[in-house]
Amino acid sequence: MAEKIGWEHYRSLLSVLTEGSLSGAARALGITQPTVGRHITALETAFGQTLFTRTQAGLVPTDAAVALRGHAEAMRNTAAALEREALSQGEGIRGTVRISASEVIGIEVLPQALARLRNEHPLLKIELVPTNRVQDLLQREADIAIRMTPPRQQALVARRVGSIELGLFAHTDYLARQGTPATLADLKAHALIGFDRETPFLRAATARFPFLDRDAFALCSDSDVAQLAMIRAGCGIGACQAALAARDVNLVRVLPDAFSFPLEAWVTMHGDLRGSRRCKAVFDALVACMEAHVALSRPVSASGRAGR
């Protein structure tokens, strides 16, 4: 019987898993609550499994519902990709392209490139997903992704755009108040800005620079953009892309000879999209944008300021 269940039933399942209630799922999907309820009941009947148990806090998914989640997400991503492809048909560059990039790249670097793309191709629609989670291109969570690690799947098309250098930076106001550290050991006396939860990047950085332990951070956030905002506000010393620091004359590089961490930057997309005109146009634009961004990572001057 399961093969007769339509996609809309799985969409309701996914929405209930996300929202935690039938009413919340109905609002998110723009359908009625009884309809969502019927979809869940049909799935439970088809699979002979209870998918949710009712509690005072809402609906709690059973192991069966949790096991179905990944498959439902894959169906959702495929349906979205089909819709994007269907809407792209016609003359010229048109349709939707979904881009995944880290928070700081998506917010600080890409907007100007996206504005140029829209000026050149007004029928093009861009969906930008700023997230530090690596989205799965093979499952079509996104069409194109900008990543700081080389892709490993053979089905992906990838272009290395260069190496983005991370350095330690602080606002001139902070250094005027607290002084400039002369050695890595001096950082213990300063307010360090860093991550809240351990990440693969943080583990790699800590392996090379043990002082970047979470306990050493006076200000913590898992958002790269929030960390950058705190550096700009003079809260303390934090890691920042040299290319971004180069935009602000008030940001000074600290200990440039002692701390440098390169990140390889890649623009990637699913190999099946090679023949898509809209995806090629966006892919090429993102490559050009990232190459220009990487070029801003230049050696610091004698004053310690990031070069332009």
The whole-angstrom Rg is 23 Å
- Shape, per Cα inertia axes: globular
Number of strands: 11
Please, what is the oligomeric state?
single chain
How much helix is in the residues?
40-55%
> End-to-end distance, in Å?
64 Å
Give the helices and strands as they follow along the chain. Answer: HHHEEHEHHEEEHEHEHEHEEH
Q: Supply the number of helical segments.
A: 11
Low-confidence stretches: 299-308
Strand content: 15-25%
Major beta-sheet overview: 9 strands, mixed
Rounded average pLDDT: 84
What is the SS-derived class?
alpha/beta
Pfam families: HTH_1 (PF00126), LysR_substrate (PF03466)
Family: Belongs to the LysR transcriptional regulatory family.
Protein name: LysR family transcriptional regulator
Keywords: DNA-binding, Transcription, Transcription regulation
Summarize this structure briefly.
With 308 residues, the protein is an alpha/beta fold.
Which terms summarize this structure?
two-stranded antiparallel ribbon, LysR-type_TF_proteobact-type, WH-like_DNA-bd_sf, WH_DNA-bd_sf, alpha/beta
What does this structure look like?
- The chain is of the alpha/beta class and 308 residues long.
- Helix content is 41%, strand content 22%.
- The chain has 11 helices and 11 strands.
- It has helices at residues 7-19, 22-29, 33-47, 63-87, 103-108, 111-120, 172-178, 200-208, 224-232, 242-245, 277-295, and strands at 52-55, 58-61, 95-101, 124-130, 144-147, 156-171, 192-194, 217-220, 237-241, 251-254, 261-270.
- The strands form 2 sheets. Strands 3, 4, 5, 6, 7, 8, 9, 10 and 11 form a 9-stranded mixed sheet that branches. The chain has a two-stranded antiparallel sheet with strand order 1-2.
- Strand 7, helix 8 (200-208) and strand 8 form a beta-alpha-beta unit.
- Helix 2 (22-29) packs across helix 3.
- Residues 299-308 have low confidence and may be disordered.
- Residues 5-62 form the HTH lysR-type domain.
- Belongs to the LysR transcriptional regulatory family.
- This is LysR family transcriptional regulator.
- Keywords: DNA-binding, Transcription, Transcription regulation.
- InterPro entries: LysR-type_TF_proteobact-type (IPR058163), LysR_HTH_N (IPR000847), LysR_subst-bd (IPR005119), WH-like_DNA-bd_sf (IPR036388), WH_DNA-bd_sf (IPR036390).
